[in-house]
Amino acid sequence: MNRLLRLILPILLLTVCYGLPDPAAAAGKTYQRTQEQYQLPDVTLINQNGKRVRLKSIVDTNKPVVVDFIFGTCTTICPVLSAGFINLQNRLGADTQKVQLVSITIDPENDTPKVMQEYLKRYRAKPGWDFYTGSRKDIDLVMRSFGAYIPNKMSHYAITFIHQPKSPHWIRLYGILSSSEFLEEVRKVGI
Amino acid sequence: MRRLTATIWLLFLMLMGTASVLSAADTKPADLLADLTPADIHRLGERMYRQGLLSDGTPLRGFIRGDVPVDSTVFSCANCHTRSGLGAIEGQVAAPPVNGPNLFKPRYLYADFVKNTISASRGKTRPATAIRPAYTDETLAAALLAGVSATGRDFLPVMPRYNMGDRDMQILISYLKNLSAQVSPGITDTTMHLATIVTDDVSATDRAAMLAPLETLVHINEQRKTQRQDQRFAKMFRMLDNAYYRDLSISTWELKGPAHTWAAQLEAYYQKEPVFAIVSGISNQSWQPIHDFCEKRQIPNLFPVTDLPVISSEDWYTMYASKGYHGEGETVARYIASHDDSTAKRIILQIVVQSEQGKALAAGFDAAWKDVGNPGSVKTVTFQTAAVPDAKQLKALFATHKPTDVLIWGGEPLLNPIKQLSGVKKMPRLYLSGRALEKKLNDLPETLREKIFITYPFRLPEDEKAYRGFADVLLMSKQKVKDDKRITSRTFSAVHMLLLGLKEIKLDFYRDTLLDQVSMRTDQYLPDFERYSFGPGQRYASKGCYVVQLGSGSKPRLVKRSDWVVF
Questions:
Q1: At which positions is Cu cation bound (chain A) (predicted)?
Q2: CB of B225 within 8 A of CB of B503?
Q3: According to CATH, what is the number of the domain A22-188?
Q4: Does B524 lie at the interface with A, CB-CB under 8 angstroms?
């Protein structure tokens, strides 16, 4: 056994006996789930390949669509969200193509197609995960329409939306999900 | 109340002097690392912390959110805890400080921390309870392997649980012990030493315009002793809050002669007076040698007045207001590419005068044109600075290449030849740098204006009025400054950002922390550029540049043809 682990085992045991409860774990789930309807604006966004795409055509497909808000140089939140995306792709395996993952930047001025391309490459994204930027005005409209307006990058929070094909409804997931929880949420809308 | 806080801070600062000596970490090489020198340990630890690679070069792996596997080469400790290790707060998630002095001491509520320090200075001990005991090597290993805090609490699922062997663990722990453990050079108990830089190609007027806001800063900092009660100054003092408990000294490092000799001159200045940071600075030549010196010596350089910055996505120590001419070139590439006209029919002629300015504009265009996928043919023709083309040569080039778009990167020397282009049949669209021609734009003949597109990297003049008052604030020490080149206002912005950064670092006088903190500021609306925006690792604050055309008349309006950021 790892020598360090042996050293720290007593401490781990102590934690089990006397450890303070984790506030999130105490609540059972680490995230809130609600069903919402959103009126999305008719804007055109730009993906990591520099291609201009209407938001409507990104969202209205016959696949479930998962949307989150991130940015290329962010600290804690994006790694967590993006690790979730790539892990979902990995766990779906052959089914990866059955769900469309969409990340929208909240730092459009810095996140050029090149920056977004490098970000996806760093995370080893597979086809089916696209990253979008746009004019600041349009990005603000998109954030507002999702009720997720983040006026300042450093007040970013973890929020994920899942759209069921052909449905007016979105599942809004506020907080951080484990990979099993995330997979289950995506499966619920049907893949 | 304010006076009380002042006293507290002052005491605090006096104590910091001693604290900095004590915090020099003691690292005795552990058995497992007996084959490594301290320098090896530091290098391997830094690579693990910043790039997520273990000592054998494989990725450090772990789990996040409970069961999501992570590979630290994708995001490392530094991603969340920042490079200097002082941590970051993003929304509701705080990545706490993980540098030696913070980890290996009990943590108190901030209020207790301040009171304890003051009591200790009076030889008393306060009975405050720590909110977290000091980590030991064992509890820290438990934190990293199993996600258990020294308090016994499980970490939030955001902090990864890592898999690593004993040897790597010791390397990482040793690195954390030394991370931001010693106050950076340039800080003494009484003084913060800063410098600025002026090269000998800069005119006396421009030099004075750059120095004025810095002199004002020092002056106001001096006056704090008598004037901080004065209502009129209250707001500024609040901004200076943390900085002004030390005297500020800003030396002017004058660089003379050819650029390749600057490095040695900088080194000599630095040996004589190590400074914490370099604020602003001015040169008409490329900033490269100064940039390189700052990288090598790891000295922050905040917002020098240069339009010839070094373009790099890796370098760390110099923060620029914008990408300068390079950024304008990029904008033209994206602007042309965003048009619907057929790629096959697009013929671009790029005329480049081989000045620093011309080369930077062309480099920006070429880089961005490649990024957008080379949507059209480009022919580049270069001219030496001593032999810029006249109107006849320009017309001949147009006739030979039949371009749809012509980029003329030559600045003022090419203005006259351009003026004589009226009357060319099938006139292509012409692109010019607004920064290079800002003072002369009105000279462009009305007959050509329909065909001329200008990159304009600043806020439009009509919107700028509201921001000009900013500069006056810093000039209230009654200095008369002549400046129509945005030098004073850009230095004012540098000072503004320095103060915002100092306010955040409080007494954590580490250079990397200053840069980390400036990088995490919200958007700033300052003179000249539409927006200064920031993000960890971002080094060019203003990201935008308009493409404009000229209206009619002798004092034409600038008419926007693009958004602030062109994609």
A1: 74, 78
A2: no
A3: 3.40.30.10
A4: no
Residue of A76, A106, A153, A174 to mutate for B, most B C-beta atoms under 10 A:
A76
Delimiting residues of CATH 3.40.50.2300 domain(s) in chain B: 191-321+462-533, 325-456+547-566
Reading phi first (left if > 0) and then psi (alpha if -120 to 50, else beta), residue B14 is in alpha
pLDDT tens digits, one per residue of B392-423: 999 999 999 999 999 999 999 999 999 999 88
From B68, B75, B89, residue closest to A87, measured CB to CB: B68
d(CA B376, CA B406): 13
CATH 2.60.120.10 for domain B325-456+547-566, yes or no, is no
Q: Does B131 touch chain A (CB under 8 A)?
A: no
Q: What is the pTM of this model?
A: 0.89
Query: Facing residues of A44 across strands?
Result: A54
pLDDT digits (tens, 9 = 90+) for A147-165: 998 888 878 889 999 999 9
Inter-residue contact B546 to B455 (CB < 8 Å): yes
DSSP three-state, residue B389? coil
What confidence tens digit (pLDDT) does each residue in B175-187 have? 999 999 999 999 9
- Residue of B315, B288, B335 whose CA lies nearest to B456: B335
Phi and psi dihedrals of B75, rounded to 5? Answer: -145, 130
A14 touches chain B (CB under 8 A): yes
Contacts of A102 (CB under 8 A, 6+ apart): A58, A59, A65, A66, A67, A68, A129, A130, A132
| CATH fold of B191-321+462-533 | Rossmann fold (3.40.50)
pLDDT tens-place string over residues B196-207: 999 999 999 999
Please provide the DSSP assignment of B247-274 as one string: EEEEEEEEE-S-GGGHHHHHHHHHHHS-
| CB atoms A112 and B156 under 8 Å | no
Between strands A44-47 and A129-133, the pairing is antiparallel
Pick the residue from chain B with its C-alpha nearest to A47. Answer: B567
Q: Is A157 on the interface with B (CB under 8 A)?
A: yes
Confirm or reject contact between B92 and chain A (CB < 8 A): yes
In this predicted structure, the answer to whether residue A184 has a pLDDT above a threshold of 60 is: yes
Q: Are A176 and A159 in contact (CB under 8 A)?
A: no
What residues does each domain of chain A span?
22-188
For residue B238, the one-letter residue type is R
Q: How many CB atoms within 10 Å of residue B338?
A: 16
**Cβ pair B522:A176 closer than 8 A:** no
Which of B65, B70, B170, B174 should be substituted to probe chain A, the one whose Cβ sees the most A Cβ atoms within 10 Å? B65
